[in-house]
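To whoever is covering the structure queue this week,

Two jobs came back overnight. Logging them here so there's a record in the thread.

Job A:
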Amino acid sequence: MTSRTNRHSVGRNRGGAGEVAPADLAYRRQLAVKRYLDGDPIERICQEMGCSKSWLYKWKKRYQAAEPAWSQEHSRRPDSTPTKTPAALAAEIVRLRQTLSSDGSGTVSADVIRDHLRQHRVEPMPSRRTIYRILNRQRQEGPFSSITIDTRTALLAPPHIER
């Protein structure tokens, strides 16, 4: 929501710190589309309601008289994430890290893990950066372990400790 739409919500029911309640937003959408359907000029509607033409056109396009929830916001989350690393592969990377570090080899580089995956013909082959991210996300390394990517070493600390 832009500042232009915020300034016209003074005195309305507010949902939280500076945010308009969802019911108020739905009401504004319904009012704007009703005025458009009643024949008011788009420029006047937008000027009086403090909204952009693109905002009004978006809600006019979504308007369906038979559907009472047409004025509700839609989720922007994608339906799928086709490039996400498969869970089985992420689990294998974490398992390899635990296996390779438990034999006293110290830090385990992403290249070493990648070589092990290559020997086992794992597909798709993750990048070194992806391996690092998976290990960082899982925090399986302990409070202050390190993972080597190429020649750089990144110190990993628990989230509650400053780096």
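Job B:
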Amino acid sequence: MIRKKVLETIKQYNLIEPKDKIVLGVSGGPDSMSMLIILNELSKILDFNIYVAHINHGIRQNAEIDEEYVKKWCQKLGIEFFALHANVLELAKEKKLGVEETGRKVRYDFFEEIALKVGAQKIAIAHNKNDNVETIIMNMLRGSGTKGLCGIEPKQGKYIRPLIEIERSEIEEFCKQEDLDPRIDESNFENEYTRNKIRNIVIPYIKNEFNPNIINTVSRLSNIVREEEEYINKQTENEYKNILVEEINLPSLEYNKDGYNKNQESKVVLNLKEFNKLPKIIEKKILLTAIQKIFGTVNGIEKVHLEDMLKLCNNNIGNKFLTPNKNLKIVIKNKQIHISCIKWSIRSNRWKHSCYKDISFFKNYCKLKNHML
């Protein structure tokens, strides 16, 4: 049953195409191991290749056992295996970030590195339907807009989530049937982090007291909102093109490619008069689109920042500027909106891994070390 649902998800969201090379993030837990087994089987049917990336965060006592477990499965299945050793606690302290956030940054950057190394077009993450619902509830508690209610996207750029329509209970049953004996992260049962509290306390309470089918109910909400969000985004894309004056020196996904000059200011210039004719929701989306193009992210941009930017634009007074945060500048001049980055160094999505011990590439039973600075 679960195999059929994963195949249906792949087809519904067009996650995989023939000849694709896909990096799988595999921790050794039930979700990622189920994804590994199922995608390995489907790779022979749908004609794609898979590689496995595993991160040893240097936190859990059983981290070495987890790594060996995943490595042995890859050897058994004949799949190329990549492992990263990282000291996440030390890195979090150095970067002054939370451990969860640091671990996530380490994982996704490593996935990108391996995708680049093997020439992969896709990166598969083992998020399931329960993860999606937990994320939506977290976003609601933070006061998120419609984008937060969309939850985890089945496909987001090169990232795909083949298990996003599968409930955790189905995955656990699959692991029993296949005798996988996956590794269990004991920290999932500790209610120290917000997600764990939602998973272990909030959702069980809602199931018992209000709606036993809460996972599917919230998942349906997510699908409805996502359809509406897609429509609004399409309208935003069209209007952005209509009012765009010019894009100057926007960074590509990789360093110094496509003529990108880090010493030159990155900027998006928009027609102020046409901008002010648009509905407020489209105006907000256009501002976020411009910021995304400049910085590669809209992290750090809050509702109050957007409201301040809209006031500046709607007042239609020339030679006025605003710095919503320390990285972003918006200027009204010559009947145009100039949105730019104050500091180049902030823009990069990539960051230095000074606390990494090594990257170990297991291929043909050889171990290569590459110190990343």
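Note for Job B: The chain has two domains: 2-226+352-369, 230-345.

Please reply-all if you pick these up so we don't duplicate work.
Q.
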